[in-house]
Amino acid sequence: MRWIMIGFGAVLLTGCVEENPPPAEVASGIYDLNPDGCGQDLSLTRLTVSGDQFRFYESVCRMEPARPGADGLQARLICTGEGESFERQVSLRSHGDLLDMTENGETRRYHRCPV
User: Fold this and answer.
1) What CA–CA distance (Å, rounded) separates 45 from 35?
2) CA 33 vs CA 14, 65, 94: distances in Å
3) What is the pLDDT of residues 65-99, one digit of tens each?
4) CA–CA separation, 4 vs 108, rounded Å?
5) In the beta sheet, which residues pair with residue 34?
6) Cβ contact 36:43 at 8 Å
7) pLDDT tens string 98-110
8) 37 and 14 in contact (C-beta within 8 Å)?
9) 18 phi and psi angles, rounded to 5 deg
10) What whole-number distance in Å separates Cα of residue 12 and Cα of residue 6?
11) Helix (H, G, I), strand (E, B) or coil at 82
């Protein structure tokens, strides 16, 4: 009887583990909203990620330490661009060669560019 209770408890605990936890960081690399933009040196929809730095066409952001959330990493980007400073609250979820960035209810899907 003791073995049955231990086994049952283990089954209950395994059911509580999140199957696909969001990554602790976004993989460094070059991404683009349009996969065809990967071949263009000056794509307007390019995003370059290097550690905690996110470089967009006309702005550069530093990601503060992110925390996992139900919709991926919840992050605050501290940005400068065109002579102004601003912040962006985003949710980041990467899967394979795709990176989804959700901001204000709108999701943009970036495609990782080949090296």
Assistant:
1) 10
2) 37, 24, 14
3) 888 888 789 999 999 999 999 999 999 999 899 99
4) 49
5) none
6) no
7) 999 999 999 999 9
8) no
9) -70, 130
10) 10
11) coil
Query: Hey, which bits of 33-83 come out as E strands?
Result: 46-50, 53-55, 60-63, 67-69, 72-81
Contact 73, 63 (CB under 8 A): no
Do 54 and 63 touch, CB atoms closer than 8 A? Answer: yes
Task: Give this prediction's pTM.
Answer: 0.75
Identify whether the C-beta of residue 71 lies closer than 8 Å to the C-beta of residue 91: yes
Three-state SS for 32?
strand
How many other C-beta atoms are found inside a 10 Å radius of the C-beta of residue 35?
14
Helix or strand (DSSP H, E) at 8: helix 2-14
- Please give the sequence-ordered ranges of beta strands (E in DSSP) within 1-115, or none if there are none: 29-32, 46-50, 53-55, 60-63, 67-69, 72-81, 84-95, 98-103, 106-112
Planar angle of CA 81, 83, 102, nearest 5 degrees: 25
N-to-C CA span, the chain: 58
